[in-house]
């Protein structure tokens, strides 16, 4: 672990300058600078003082929990093609089912549709990237074209169809796919 960089990161996160941290820990600004650049190492007692000023403990500071991935590319997508419904779903955030919302990239071929979804608790949001879709929501039928978005609560039977094909981003909360 790079102690100096980690201390600097915490200091910046707390919105403190080196001088402010040094004043709080009763140290010199030069010492804080040297520690952050790994030119010197603080004693355990000094490190504990610095960490206390940064609002963390020694155990939290040294816990090495891996950073969660926040950027995803095509290589991370999970793709499912349904020949019967003529659609392809790309989960653009892997394992999104564990989250409150689940964004997918949905491609409907001409004449394609999504599976009718029984009413469920939650919300649905979509943004049409190409083509147009027909939204079937209970007894209502609405049409959204490229550049338009849609939103509805999922408490009625709902599904999408497309005569000419469409590509859209669809966000479901909670996940229902």
Question: Can you walk through the features of this model?
Answer:
- With 177 residues, the chain is α+β, with helices and mostly antiparallel strands.
- Helices cover 24% and strands 33% of the residues.
- The protein has five helices and nine strands; from the N terminus they run αααααβββββββββ.
- Strands 1, 2, 3, 4, 5, 6, 7, 8 and 9 form a nine-stranded antiparallel beta sheet that branches.
- A hairpin with a 2-residue loop joins β5 (123-137) and β6.
- It starts with a helix and ends with a strand.
- The model has no long low-confidence stretch (mean pLDDT 88).
Distance between termini? Answer: 40 Å
Shape: elongated
Strand content: 25-35%
| Continuous helix count | 5
How many strand units? 9
SSE map:
Layout: H1 3-13, H2 18-25, H3 29-36, H4 44-53, H5 58-62, E1 78-82, E2 87-91, E3 102-108, E4 112-113, E5 123-137, E6 140-145, E7 149-153, E8 158-162, E9 166-173
Antiparallel strand pairs: 1-2, 2-3, 3-9, 4-8, 5-6, 5-7, 5-8, 5-9
